[in-house]
Amino acid sequence: MTLTRRRLVQITGAGLGSSYVLASGLAQGNTLKNTSIQRDAYTKRKLYHGVAYYPELWPEDDIEGDIAEMKKLGINVARMGEFAWSSMEPEEGKISLDFFRGVMDRLHEAGIEVVFCTPTATPPVWLTHGHPERCFVDADGNVMSHGARQHASYEHPAVQKACIRIVKACAKALGDHPALIAWQLDNEMKAHVAEDFSDAAVASWHRWLKQRYGSIDALNRAWGTHIWSQYYQRFEQVPAPKKTPFLHNASLSTAYREFNRERIVDFMKSQREAIRAYAPQPITHNDNPAFNLNHEKSMEALDFASYDAYPTDKQWGALIFRSDFYRGAIPGRPFWLMETSSSHNGWLGNHQPPHPSDFLVAEAASVYALGGEAFCYWLWRQQRTGAELPHSAVMSAWNAPGIGYREVQKVSALREEWTPLLAGSDAIEADIAVTYSDRARAMIETEGLDRREGFPRRYRDVVAMWHDQIRSLGYHRGVRFEHAKLDGLRMLVTPAMPYVSSEFAERIIDFVNKGGTWLCGPVTGTRAEDHTVPTDAGLGLVDALAGVRTKFVVPLTNTDAEGEVFGMRVPLSGWAGATEVEGQADSKGKILTGVAKGLSFLTERRLGKGRIVLLSAQPHGDEGKALVNKIIEHYATQANVRHRFEVSDGTVVGPHRDANNKTLWLAVNMNGEGGRLRLPARSRDALTGEPIQKVWLTLSRYERRAIYPGE
Ligand code: GAL
Predict the structure, then answer these.
(1) Which atom of ligand 1 lies nearest, measured to the CA of 341?
(2) Is the Cβ atom of 187 under 6 angstroms away from ligand 1?
(3) Core-most of 432, 458, 581, 680, by most CB within 10 Å?
(4) By alpha-carbon position, which residue is closest to atom 5 of ligand 1?
(5) What pLDDT score does 12 carry?
């Protein structure tokens, strides 16, 4: 039984302020099944500093020199294999991993550990030549060709079979190697491609729909298919969202995205199983929030999270966002930064500017500071051939130190300095977080947020915008997946999540009853489960949760709508829920002008020991931003959010509990402008043990400091 609005009003409506007791078995609707992976408790023993290594592309004679150079440079982990399928299996069925085992022997002798990757991102030509049906097809019907990456359709049985065969062969040949510390599945799955429209994918879509809806009648009801005579008689008639004269049904478009993004996770799980038949090492995947997969579910195939990021010095905020995102992805396991450039990114005809001096070491420091265990480069030696000739590397193609080499040396020095501090430590988890929902992403891709100057278009950028704002106020912050536990949090912000499931609502009620504050942001609640419009209330379950009646859901962008709260009057934009409070909630912010004049855009309701705050329109522009800051600060203070630093914007602090259970702060200036951090009395420099007398510690450009704060 799912949690209906009526039922929710019954259980939360009576005796506000009194504690809500969770009725057992109430909502079993849409929960992601908990992962079956048993992850043992993990202690970080050391920090890693690594490179992507492609010895198969160079003369064998170079290997010895490579390894000696890596060792000299303080590289302690190499990642290999992710594009090497044609070297491992040049002809179908003729597989040899001897070369890689030999390289691993030599790395092992030098004390360099190895992450081995399954090579399934680049199937050899024999798999797809003369077989267009095995290739990925995009929404316009373009069949991908051999020659780059991700051109095969993982839905095709022949592709799946060949992939699993090579994965098993790798695991069998290398799974007992003493250098091997982890596996990486594939490489950046769904980085270059999105939804697959091949025949194999469409057949799989029909199976997926059958599994999700059970009967075609259920699908027809959920999607309201008599609209425009879409009504289906059989699952096989349901189209993939290819070209139509106008637009597809929103339910279908969103479902097709979800189908593709879940299926790639199924593929990851089958690779995991294939590895597990022979090899026990932990498994990861180098992810990035931009990729077209279900990030939350993908963690079910992994033992630890890792990510790739190529920010320029101006984009350092993206690195902080990703570290926070992947720190929360698999609680208890430190994440890795699997790829970044030692200087600049580049591919044919494109390049970034090179990093300014000291930016790289600040990046590494921020990753370690926020709980990362590894900081790794793409790549060791500049590509001589291929499509990424302009990309920077630790060593040039002519095997001399690359432009970033001296910066890599600085990272090695940092790793050595910080390893004794961070071995056995745990990053302290934040008590304020922002929700990330894969379903919200799919819905917002189907139905874009409205165009507004100065406001992000993409879902993940909206999440990142809230994250950045919380960060700029000095809060240590996290990101929680939609289905993640809310333990340890005091405040959760959920922006732009159109569908609030009964399962999510239940967890919010529990969280709030125990003292948490839920700040429900604009657009949240505007759609129902199958990407339809809620018919029970304007914002679905949010109305009942927040104690409001939504009178209108109305677009305010480019209107004269202004709202006032906390003594500030600001423009409002975006799709807004214009509400009236019901009984137990208070209206805090009113819309003063425009079509929704007199209704509320900020309401507060006390429930149990906590609060539900509904911000149902976006405060716009610079004044709007100032107001959002005020709202965050006001409610974070009321919620007793503890981990906040008095620090200038552009400097980031990662708090840890070290091996002796002492609090350790790692502070890094990221914006290159220097910064300051207020310290408690009796703080000490963690490296020298010297007392720090100053109340305000100043950090110079990209400076890093390790501090034991005075208690
Ligand atoms: C990553 C990819 C690498 C390389 C790199 C270049 O996205 O995983 O293989 O292409 O980008 O920046």
Answers:
(1) 12
(2) yes
(3) 432
(4) 378
(5) 52
* Token reading at 38: 């048993």
By most ligand atoms within 8 Å of CB, the mutation choice from 378, 379, 380 for ligand 1 is 378
Per-residue pLDDT at 16:
29
- Residues 335, 333: Cα–Cα separation, whole Å: 6
pLDDT category at 26 given cuts 50, 70, 90 is very low
Atom 6, ligand 1: residue with shortest CA distance: 345
Query: CA–CA separation, 590 vs 599, rounded Å?
Result: 6
553: which strand partners? 577
Q: Is 186 in the pocket of ligand 1 (CB under 6 A)?
A: no
Mean pLDDT score of the chain, rounded to an integer? 95
Q: Do domains 5-31+429-638 and 651-708 have the same CATH topology?
A: no
Please give the C-alpha separations between residue 547 and each of 269, 452, 541, 550, 598, in angstroms, as whole numbers.
Answer: 42, 29, 10, 10, 17
Q: What is the pLDDT of residue 4?
A: 53
Catalytic, out of 339, 482, 503, 506:
339
Q: What is the DSSP string of 514-582?
A: TT-EEEEPTTTTSS-TTS---SSSTTTHHHHHHTEEEEEEEE-TTS--EEEETTEEEEEESEEEEEEE-
Looking at CATH, the fold of the domain delimited by 5-31+429-638 is given as Rossmann fold (3.40.50)
Q: Give me the residue spans of the domains in the chain.
A: 5-31+429-638, 48-123+163-191+264-425, 651-708
Give 580's strand partners: 549
Q: What is the pLDDT of residue 223?
A: 98
pLDDT digits (tens, 9 = 90+) for 482-508: 999 999 999 999 999 999 999 999 999
Architecture of 48-123+163-191+264-425 per CATH?
A: Alpha-Beta Barrel (3.20)
Report the separation in Å between the CA atom of 104 and the middle of ligand 1, taken as the mean of its atom positions.
22
Considering the chain, what percentage of its residues have pLDDT values greater than 90?
A: 94
Catalytic residue, candidates 69, 188, 300, 703: 188
Within a 10 A sphere around the Cβ of 4, how many other Cβ atoms?
A: 14
Q: How far is the CA of 526 from the centre of ligand 1 (A)?
A: 37
Q: Whose CA is nearest to atom 3 of ligand 1?
A: 378
Query: Does 651-708 carry CATH code 1.20.1260?
Result: no
pLDDT at 212 over 70: yes
Q: For a pocket test of ligand 1, which of 118, 291, 308, 338 has the largest count of ligand atoms closer than 8 A to its C-beta?
A: 308
Can you tell me the distance from the alpha carbon of 583 to that of 600, in angstroms, rounded to the nearest whole number? 14
Confidence at residue 37, expressed as pLDDT on a 0 to 100 scale: 78
d(CA 399, CA 378): 15
Q: Residue 7 above 80 pLDDT?
A: no
pLDDT exceeds 60 at position 641? yes
Bridge partners of residue 667, in order along the sequence: 653, 705
Per residue in 403-439, pLDDT tens?
999 999 999 999 999 999 999 999 999 999 999 999 9
64 is catalytic: no
- Residue 119: which residues within 8 A CB-CB, separation 6 or more? 81, 82, 83, 84, 85, 88, 166, 170
User: Does residue 334 have a pLDDT over 90?
Assistant: yes
Q: Is 300 a catalytic residue?
A: no
Rg of the chain taking only CA atoms, in angstroms: 26
Predicted local confidence at residue 21, as pLDDT: 29
Q: Does the reported pTM lie above 0.90?
A: yes
What phi, psi does 688 have (nearest 5°)?
-100, -20
